[in-house]
Amino acid sequence: MASQQSKLISDSDVTIVGKVTTAFGIKGWVKVHSFTDPMKGILDYKNWYLKVKGQWQSYKVIEAKPQGKGIVAKFDGIDDRDLALALSQVEISVLSSDLPQLAEDEFYWSQLVGLIVVNKNGELLGKIDHLFNSGAPHDVMSVKGYEGSLDQQERLIPYVDAVIGKIDLDAGEMQVDWEADF
Fold it and tell me: How far apart are CA 24 and CA 20, in angstroms?
């Protein structure tokens, strides 16, 4: 099962890299939806943290591998289907300090979620709710209206160099070349 943590792990200590979807078979394996790119990147981490009952708990991955179009994993101490099912829809994270260092102009999606988005006209378009791979050659940001934004409309903005301007993580802001009426 989960190992005991002498230090409580907080949301700011981890980066979400996937989620358990459901059980796989009867011996405690789980199906995993990976948020990493490439999908198999999640397999580079052997200690995963699962958010169980509101707290991040360490789970040791005994074995994990690609299976069909997804990934399956086996955790230490999860030995039957009922224990595996109890982890359904639980987020998987790794310690942020274990992630590879990025170049100065690169960002993890988790760093961008929550940034406010302002266009070159100074109009507040909203806040980044999530990013996703649309199947196109670029990722897409879902920017949703919030307090102070032009409106409450959701905008889908491509994450491409021609659109993305200055990103200031400290200020919590991203500038984009995107008209409000797009």
Answer: 10
Q: What is the pLDDT of residues 101-150, one digit of tens each?
A: 888 888 888 889 999 999 999 999 999 999 887 777 888 999 999 999 99
Tabulate helix, strand, coil % of the chain (nearest 5). Answer: 10, 45, 45
Task: Take residue 98 and report the two structure tokens written for it.
Answer: 């274990």
Compute the average pLDDT of residues 76-103: 94
Phi–psi pair at 36, nearest 5 degrees: -80, 160
Please check whether residue 140 is in contact with residue 131, taking contact to mean a CB–CB distance below 8 angstroms: yes
Q: What domains appear along the chain, each with residue ranges and CATH number?
A: 11-98 (2.40.30.60), 109-176 (2.30.30.240)
Beta-carbon neighbour count of residue 103 at 10 Å? 6
The answer on pLDDT for 153 being more than 60 is yes
What does the radius of gyration of the chain's CA atoms come to, in whole angstroms?
19
Amino acid code (one letter) for 50: L
pLDDT tens per residue across span 155-164: 999 999 999 9
Beta strands in the chain (DSSP E): 14-24, 29-34, 47-52, 55-67, 70-75, 91-95, 116-119, 124-133, 139-144, 155-159, 164-168, 173-176
